[in-house]
């Protein structure tokens, strides 16, 4: 390969890598600029335009053109598209990830409180144990009785 060939390949690679950054933005989320070192102007923005800083995608829990709107209570996640289900207090459902910060309603468990108590247990934190329910009536995960 001649020197000019090497140079041509090198220039081509450089162009491709620059085009890649322009299309796909900075590798680190929340930053923009030629060095990807300037924080996005909108604090709740996850992806902003590499040149202008215009927000193109919010962090989970936020929406709006400038990500200035917090998800409504009872919703969470990217674009606020997820729904909190069985939190003990829906006002204490994390807008970021749906965690029920003060625990679950009776009958449910897990960070997201989307899992029913195991068979044979019920109540808050699934702490109660079912008594001698007749076989044909399953013990309710919420009240213990039928
Ligand atoms: C980019 O990095 C160079 C060298 O580290 C620095 O001098 C320059 O100010 C930076 N530019 C921006 C826009 O941050
Ligand atoms: C969910 O978000 C809350 C803050 O809203 C945080 O305290 C908690 O650690 C997060 N949980 C997970 C599993 O990321």
UniProtKB/TrEMBL annotation:
Lineage: superkingdom: Eukaryota
Task: Say if the entry is tagged with keyword Signal.
Answer: yes
Q: Which InterPro entries match?
A: EGF, MEGF10/SREC1/2-like
Q: Where is the EGF-like domain?
A: 39-68, 79-114
- Record keywords, A-Z: EGF-like domain, Signal
Q: Which GO terms describe its molecular function?
A: scavenger receptor activity
* Record-linked SMART domains: EGF
Give start-end of the signal peptide: 1-19
Its name, as the record gives it, is EGF-like domain-containing protein
Its lineage opens with: Eukaryota, Metazoa, Spiralia, Lophotrochozoa, Mollusca
């Amino acid at each position: 390969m001649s020197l000019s060939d090497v140079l041509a390949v090198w220039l081509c690679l450089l162009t491709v890598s620059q085009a890649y950054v322009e299309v796909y933005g900075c590798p680190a989320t929340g930053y923009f600029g030629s060095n990807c070192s300037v924080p996005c102007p909108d604090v709740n923005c996850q992806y902003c335009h590499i040149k202008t800083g215009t927000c193109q995608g919010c962090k989970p829990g936020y929406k709006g053109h400038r990500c200035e709107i917090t998800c409504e209570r009872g919703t969470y996640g990217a674009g606020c598209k997820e729904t909190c289900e069985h939190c003990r207090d829906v006002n204490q459902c994390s807008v970021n990830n749906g965690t029920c910060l003060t625990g679950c309603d009776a009958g449910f468990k897990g960070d997201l409180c989307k899992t029913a108590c195991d068979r044979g247990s019920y109540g808050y934190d699934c702490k109660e144990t079912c008594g001698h329910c007749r076989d044909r009536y399953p013990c309710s995960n919420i009240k213990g009785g039928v």
